[in-house]
């Protein structure tokens, strides 16, 4: 079998996925209609034509606009279930998904509404597909640390459903150190911790994520490669990098996949993984990301296996469950 066939068939994990970034235009229009809310774009095609981004911020503006039609528990359930069905077809057997509670709270959608819909779909996929999952609540870094604390307070009744916390949204100008106190509190509650770092932000932000926040892994991490001491530290701590090839291409973090750093990360001995980030916006789900790497980067069979294995190793599954998947 070809490498591409192998990539598609092998069991995989998704460790970097924003559930709001799986909102396909067709579903967005359907939910907008049933909720009687208007979208800025008149048709699915018009919306899709707007998916041309020069930067992370360009994308985020559309991302927050798109999710604004999500109002009810059923909307969050339908969004999540559509994604889980889609990646079940890609043989993704374990997912760790982010949601952005603050982006919905500010629109008047309660924490309870959001998490009940998302968690309900995850439980149904566990029952129906044998899929395992972790749920990660992400703080919006363009807001203040105080807002993150307020969100954490709302999450307290649901901590049994939440495995970890993350940090996303506009990176430059909002370094990890801005959130040192809230992450310390999260850790004391037993939550795992990750943060987007080094997507557009400098190596200093990745250092802060490690030294000041004490992250359990790093989302993206591309720009860590600019600093040899940082590379050595990530390796020594065996921190997993949740890399997102098609996202990086769409958001101009790289100019082409040929020059994508993921193979370099593997050569350096870093635990790089493949993930889709916001697949509805970036042109592909899990297998599309693997297919793009196979087709554009001369990935070897060994590298393919390594990437898939790194996904299980870098997951927050307990050892027996990992073993069951492999
Ligand atoms: N980076 C930062 N914030 C995000 C992203 C991303 O790729 N996707 C959704 N929120
Ligand atoms: Zn992301």
From TrEMBL:
What are the GO cellular component annotations? Answer: cytosol
Could you tell me which Pfam families the record lists for this protein?
Answer: A_deaminase (PF00962)
What UniProt keywords are attached to this protein's entry? Hydrolase, Metal-binding, Nucleotide metabolism, Zinc
The record lists the membrane-crossing segments as none
Taxonomic superkingdom: Bacteria
How does the cofactor attach, per the note? Binds 1 zinc ion per subunit.
Catalytic residues (positions): 199
- Residues bound to Zn(2+) are 16, 18, 196, 277
For this protein, the Enzyme Commission number is 3.5.4.2
Q: What class of enzyme is it?
A: hydrolase
Record-level GO BP terms: adenine catabolic process; hypoxanthine salvage; nucleotide metabolic process
GO molecular function terms attached to this record: adenine deaminase activity; zinc ion binding
What family is it from? Belongs to the metallo-dependent hydrolases superfamily. Adenosine and AMP deaminases family. Adenine deaminase type 2 subfamily.
- Its biological function? Catalyzes the hydrolytic deamination of adenine to hypoxanthine. Plays an important role in the purine salvage pathway and in nitrogen catabolism.
Name used for this protein in its record: Adenine deaminase
Species in which this protein is naturally found: Marinomonas piezotolerans
Q: What is the lineage of its organism?
A: Bacteria, Pseudomonadati, Pseudomonadota, Gammaproteobacteria, Oceanospirillales
């Amino acid at each position: 079998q070809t490498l591409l066939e192998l990539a598609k068939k092998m069991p995989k994990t998704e460790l970097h996925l924003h559930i709001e970034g799986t909102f396909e235009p067709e579903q967005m229009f359907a939910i907008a209609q049933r909720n009687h809310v208007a979208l800025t774009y008149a048709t699915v095609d018009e919306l899709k034509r707007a998916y041309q981004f020069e930067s992370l911020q360009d994308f985020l503006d559309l991302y927050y606009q798109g999710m604004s039609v999500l109002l009810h528990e059923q909307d969050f359930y339908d969004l999540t279930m559509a994604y889980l069905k889609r990646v079940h077809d890609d043989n993704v057997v374990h997912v760790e998904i982010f949601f952005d509670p603050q982006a919905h709270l500010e629109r008047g959608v309660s924490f309870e509404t959001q998490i009940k819909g998302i968690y309900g779909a995850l439980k149904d996929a566990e029952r129906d597909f044998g899929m395992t999952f972790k749920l990660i609540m992400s703080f919006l870094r363009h807001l203040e640390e105080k807002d993150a604390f307020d969100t954490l307070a709302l999450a307290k009744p649901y901590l049994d459903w939440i495995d970890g916390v993350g940090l996303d949204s506009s990176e430059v100008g909002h370094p990890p150190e801005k959130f040192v106190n809230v992450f310390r509190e999260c850790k004391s509650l037993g939550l795992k911790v990750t943060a987007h770092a080094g997507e557009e932000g400098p190596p200093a932000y990745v250092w802060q994520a490690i030294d000041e926040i004490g992250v359990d892994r790093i989302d993206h991490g591309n720009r860590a490669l600019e600093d040899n001491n940082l590379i050595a530290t990530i390796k020594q701590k065996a921190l997993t990098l949740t890399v997102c090839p098609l996202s990086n291409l769409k958001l101009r973090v790289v100019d082409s996949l040929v020059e994508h750093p993921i193979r370099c990360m593997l050569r350096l001995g870093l635990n790089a993984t493949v993930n889709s980030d916001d697949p509805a916006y970036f042109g592909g789900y899990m297998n599309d990301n693997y297919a793009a790497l196979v087709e554009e980067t001369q990935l070897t069979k060994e590298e393919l296996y390594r990437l898939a294995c790194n996904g299980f190793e870098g997951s927050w599954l307990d050892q027996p469950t990992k073993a069951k998947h492999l």
